[in-house]
Design a protein that fits this description.
binds 2-acetamido-2-deoxy-beta-D-glucopyranose, 0% strand, single chain, 60% helix, 7 helices, 168 residues
Length: 168
């Protein structure tokens, strides 16, 4: 009885030691973060880098300025310009901008709370042959989608953390 008890305790102790060591290591890591901050990209730096995609002169070349997507997340394509937008250079260049952002921060959120995928979906619907053709209002598209499906709502903070998780 006594032996099994001692054995049991030592197993327990053996299991706890790595946990407590690990615990203190991670505590130190958290405390040390400001000093080792340069090792990790800080979020504002990443967002700033992603924002450069909108002004990249090698991406936006032929797309007319007023149709260019920027950080606002709005696609300002008038209904009667649908063919020009969907068959012209803007479509490709907008997807290149989205790829550029996606490569830096997958969970990038536009000012209107749209995700990269939301913008892609809106463009696909707006340039599609269905009833949504010519409708490039991202907010309206989001509302329509939210009504169609139950969506998991994740706060912007978690988006940034998830985005960092992808990068690290
Ligand atoms: C984004 O583009 C729209 C026009 O499409 C413009 O009104 C708005 O000021 C731009 N926003 C930024 C932050 O450049």
């Amino acid at each position: 009885m006594a032996l099994t008890r001692i054995l049991g305790l030592s197993v327990l102790a053996a299991a706890l030691i790595p946990i407590s060591v690990f615990g203190s290591i991670s505590e130190n890591a958290v405390e040390d973060e400001p000093e080792t901050g340069h090792k990790f990209h800080d979020p504002t730096e990443i967002v700033a880098k992603a924002l450069l995609c909108f002004n990249d002169k090698y991406i936006y070349i032929n797309c007319e300025e007023s149709y260019r997507l920027n950080e606002s997340g709005d696609l300002n394509v008038p209904f009667d310009k649908t063919d020009a937008y969907c068959n012209g250079p803007c479509l490709d260049e907008t997807h290149l901008v989205l790829d550029c952002i996606d490569n830096i921060l997958t969970n990038f959120l536009f000012y209107n709370k749209a995700t990269i995928q939301d913008i892609r979906d809106t463009i696909q619907a707006g340039c599609g042959t269905g009833s949504e053709r010519g409708k490039f209002n991202v907010a309206e598209h989001l509302k329509a989608e939210a009504n169609n499906a139950n969506q998991i709502v994740v706060g912007p903070g978690l988006m940034v953390i998830l985005g960092l998780g992808v990068l690290l």
